[in-house]
Amino acid sequence: MLPDFALTGDVGEEFAQVLAHGEVEYLVANSVLAPLFDSGRRRAAADAVAARRNQAAYAFKGAVLGALRDVNDALAAIQRDREQDQRLDSQVDLESKALKISSERYKAGYTPYVDQLDSERQLLAAQLNFTQARTARLTAVVGLYEALGGGWRATPGPNEKRPS
């Protein structure tokens, strides 16, 4: 933004002639005033640099906020899936007890075999729901690991051993 001076010249006879004719004032004034009256080119260039800086700052801020949102979502999913996992685990225990009671009632001759089959079907459904909830929770843990910046390679690197 400041004017620049270029003091060049030969010490020889040509420089002495310029000084003798009074052209020094013209050359100095020209080098000082030219940057001041450049039709706003320097100001526009400075504004463009500031705009690029602001754009980069906003992009960085957006990336940070997105990463924080991803971490928060993953933590909430883990908590939700953990609670569902506990509920379904207790449901599997209750269905297992119901099957045991139903089997004992069938062996004693109090209920038909259909009741035992129905208890087995309900236990299987509860176990499937539990397995799906466990899978969802583990997937959320992987999502959290990924949101925190973790990474992995599908194939081992040249210095790594393949797991056995």
Helix content: over 70%
Structural class: mainly alpha
Question: With helices defined by DSSP (H or I, 4 residues minimum), what is the helix count?
Answer: 4
Proportion of β residues? under 5%
Largest sheet: none
Q: Give helix and strand order, one letter per element, not per position.
A: HHHH
Q: Kindly report how far apart the N and C termini lie.
A: 66 Å
Shape: elongated
Task: Give the helices and strands, then pairings.
Blueprint: H1 13-21, H2 24-36, H3 41-108, H4 113-147
Helix pairs in contact: 3-4
Question: What does this 3D model show about the protein?
Answer:
This protein is an all-alpha fold and 164 residues long. It has a domain at 64-147. It is 76% helix and 0% strand. It has helices at residues 13-21, 24-36, 41-108, 113-147. α3 packs antiparallel against α4 (113-147). The protein is elongated, with a radius of gyration of 40 Å. The mean pLDDT is 79.
